[in-house]
């Protein structure tokens, strides 16, 4: 299938016109009084060009502003119909077209590809049951589990409102606050060399959240998805990433495009972990805790299929900048769990697209459910409605019309979790004990098996915090000391070597 971002209203004869199809006499001429007099307001072609130029930028994403992407397909390699009844998994060998966008989280649209930051890994599948979006990251966990903290956290990754500069004091002040140290596991990921992937092609993707998948018998499980690169993991050291940011800030974007153009199509093998409700109740942490991973010894990976990217977009703005992903875009048998951060994303993502792209963003070709088509005459009108607006269909479900609702007998969640209790505020802060540091300590041990990685972790943290004030440095040392005292000592040593005063003790 060709790139769906092309439109049929572009002239094939390449005659240059204004935006409503009127041919130009001369695209560089302007209407003036005499040879050197003022311009005339009647020069509609000039006004058309200038007025559109003032409006050709749309709001950038906040976050995930900077990114790149490509089209491809997902192919089923293993039967998982016992886990999920979605049509895309119905038979081995079945292929579903998709588009994937990779991104950094905190930086602006023009920021560097190699910045120390988590990466987004979002894929839209054009399935026969409607569009499905897997809106994932390249880390299996995140910084928080209270959705109310998300805007606060992202603000600490942005620019100071007075200086308009990035501020390590703000970054570390937020993250070392005791109730926010639930981020420690993600910080260990971020400040290891895993925080600076060398290529979008050479990193994994993870659902992070627990989702709920069910088979056609109604049996359901919690599920996490792992998308593992077939190219092998490749990361940059801090110094390599900084050097590349100066030499070629768009390195990863270029690397992805050029490899696909050469026919070196990147691929990833897709796996799932599954967990029953009974198993979830026995966990030492909540299944809805976005800061925890599921141990693979207890919940082994099960192969599902392969994701391949084999087609560059013909136009970046149309196909990638306008691509709108949301975990609320789902298909039968794949549902959201009660993870509070996931629940908040079900609202926040499509709301962001309505602001950024308009109320009818789903009509933009890259976002259209072309494989299934759409029919809902209640959702209509609004700015930039270009699909015919359902013609003369009534704008409500009329009694004299027939409507097919084939899924009305399919159970959704009434046979699954049952929730009872009063509406109440709940602040899911860092545990006063050690449960939120257990997996961070385990990760530090894993890094110890990889030559130089523990030292690189200390170096990367110290490089970032070296310009922070001494009391913030003290808090950073205290926090990482809870992971490993040797790690804190190495961070302090690195800070001192950078010539910045650190606290005498930690």
UniProtKB/TrEMBL annotation:
> Which Gene3D superfamilies does the record cross-reference, listed alphabetically?
Catalase core domain
Q: Which reaction does it catalyse?
A: 2 H2O2 = O2 + 2 H2O
Q: What is its EC number?
A: 1.11.1.6
Class of enzymatic activity (EC top level): oxidoreductase
- Please tell me whether the keyword Iron is annotated for this protein: yes
Family matches, as CDD domains: catalase_fungal (cd08157)
Swiss-Prot/TrEMBL cofactor(s): heme
Q: Which UniProt keywords apply?
A: Heme, Hydrogen peroxide, Iron, Metal-binding, Oxidoreductase, Peroxidase
Domain Catalase core residues, every copy: 17-405
Q: Where is this region: Disordered?
A: 1-28
Q: Which domain of life is it from?
A: Eukaryota
Give the family, as the similarity comment puts it.
Belongs to the catalase family.
Q: What does this protein do?
A: Catalyzes the degradation of hydrogen peroxide (H(2)O(2)) generated by peroxisomal oxidases to water and oxygen, thereby protecting cells from the toxic effects of hydrogen peroxide.
Q: What is the recorded name of this protein?
A: Catalase
């Amino acid at each position: 299938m060709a790139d769906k971002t092309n439109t049929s209203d572009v002239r094939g004869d390449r005659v240059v016109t204004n935006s409503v199809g009127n041919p130009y006499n001369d695209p560089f001429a302007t209407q003036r009084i005499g040879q050197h007099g003022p311009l005339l307001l009647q020069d509609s072609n000039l006004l058309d060009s200038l007025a559109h130029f003032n409006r050709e930028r749309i709001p950038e994403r906040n976050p995930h502003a900077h990114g790149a992407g490509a089209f491809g397909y997902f192919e089923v390699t293993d039967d998982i119909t016992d886990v999920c009844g979605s049509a895309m998994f119905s038979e081995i060998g079945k292929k579903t077209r998709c588009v994937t966008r990779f991104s950094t989280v905190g930086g602006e649209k023009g920021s560097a590809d190699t910045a120390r930051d988590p990466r987004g890994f979002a894929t839209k599948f054009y399935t026969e049951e409607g569009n499905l979006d897997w809106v994932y990251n390249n880390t299996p966990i995140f910084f928080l589990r209270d959705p109310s903290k998300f805007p606060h956290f992202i603000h600490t990754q942005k620019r100071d409102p007075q200086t308009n500069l990035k501020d390590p004091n703000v970054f570390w002040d937020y993250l070392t606050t005791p109730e926010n140290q639930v981020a420690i596991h993600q910080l260990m990921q971020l400040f290891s060399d895993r925080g600076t992937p060398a290529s979008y092609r050479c990193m994994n993707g993870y659902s992070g959240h627990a989702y709920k998948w069910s088979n056609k018998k109604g049996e359901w499980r919690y599920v996490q998805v792992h998308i593992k690169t077939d190219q092998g993991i490749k990361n940059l050291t801090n110094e390599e990433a900084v050097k590349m940011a100066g030499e070629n800030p768009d390195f990863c974007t270029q690397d992805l495009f050029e490899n696909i153009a050469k026919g070196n199509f990147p691929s990833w093998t897709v796996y799932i972990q599954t967990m029953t409700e009974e198993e979830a109740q026995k966990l030492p942490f909540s299944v809805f805790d976005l800061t925890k991973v599921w141990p693979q010894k207890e919940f082994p990976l099960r192969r599902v299929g392969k994701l391949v990217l084999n087609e560059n977009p013909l136009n970046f703005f149309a196909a990638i900048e306008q691509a709108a992903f949301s975990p609320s875009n789902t298909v039968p048998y794949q549902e959201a769990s009660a993870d509070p951060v996931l629940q908040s994303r079900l609202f926040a993502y499509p709301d962001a697209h309505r602001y950024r792209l308009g109320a009818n963003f789903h009509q933009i070709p890259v976002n259209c459910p072309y494989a299934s088509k759409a029919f809902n005459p209640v959702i209509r009108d609004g700015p930039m409605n270009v699909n015919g607006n359902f013609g003369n269909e009534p704008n409500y479900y009329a009694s004299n019309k027939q409507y097919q609702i084939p899924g009305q007998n399919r159970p959704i969640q009434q046979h699954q979790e049952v929730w009872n209790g009063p509406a109440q505020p709940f602040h899911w802060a860092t545990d006063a004990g050690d449960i939120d540091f257990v997996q961070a300590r385990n990760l530090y041990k894993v890094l110890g098996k990889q030559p130089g990685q523990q030292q690189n972790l200390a170096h990367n943290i110290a490089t970032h915090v070296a310009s922070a004030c001494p009391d913030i440095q003290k808090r950073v040392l205290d926090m990482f000391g809870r992971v490993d005292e040797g790690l804190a000592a190495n961070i302090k040593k690195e800070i001192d070597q950078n010539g910045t005063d650190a606290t005498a003790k930690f």
